[in-house]
UniProtKB/TrEMBL annotation:
Organism taxonomic ancestry: Bacteria, Bacillati, Bacillota, Bacilli, Bacillales
Protein name as it appears in the record: Transcriptional regulator
GO molecular function: DNA binding
Domain HTH hxlR-type, first and last residues per copy: 14-108
Keyword terms: DNA-binding, Transcription, Transcription regulation
Pfam families (alphabetical): HxlR (PF01638)
Domain of life (superkingdom): Bacteria
Amino acid sequence: MKQEMEVEQVQIECSIEKALSVIGGKWSFLVLRELFCGTKRFGELQKAISKVSPKALTDTLRHLEENEVLTRTVYPTVPVTVEYCLTEKGQALHKIIKEMKHWGSAWA
């Protein structure tokens, strides 16, 4: 009688992969860059990141909100005012983004 051993595959997630998963795509870095300067509205973000489409910006903001990197505050005005600001988790990325900026200046 053969005994079959089940091998359980354990996948260990890399910390860098986890961080990139939380941050998201390329637009996230530019959104973060803008929010390090303070709270911004959608239009301000879109103007500051000129090449991002409204859909890509919306998707990026939703992703960052779902991952608790930023908060979205809606004010009951006409039209509705929506502001975005970084959470403590989002602010913790400032040092990393700053280092990426320095690296880009030196090597890109």
